[in-house]
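ok so for the tutorial part 2 we go from a plain amino acid sequence to predicted structure tokens. step 1 is just haveing the sequence, like this:
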Amino acid sequence: MTKCKWTFLAIGFHNLIFAHMGEKLDLKFDAQILEQLLVEQIALVDFLTEVFKGNEGKNYLQMCAAVKAYHHQNGGAPEVLEFEITQPQFNPNTLSGSFNCKFKVSFFFGCDDLHIDKNDTINWQFKIDSITHVIHLNGEEPWSSE
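step 2 — the prediction. this is what the tokens look like for a chain of 146 residues:
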């Protein structure tokens, strides 16, 4: 399940900035793929692909929902059906790293019968728990003003 937090920062007397506090995901994975990553049998991008395939595909759907959540404030009915992992980085000593998630978000504005597609990239930091076999993902924190 994704977690979403909002923080309100007052700027001057009349401006209010809404700071979206980044999406967070905790995804279970099979212990075997971590072992393969650590002994360099598989690349990080393959490890992440296997994580997202896990939990009968629910991990993939959770990630799609998390990146979609970054666009709820844009109006319309946003939808994200697929994403691509790019620029993966991993530190095996700390079991942490980062990657970019490239995706297309499609908006549907029903009253206008209008479809708009937008490409986006969100940076994610992660930490792997080798005991519980959970990867903790933290998405970047975008800013928008109202």
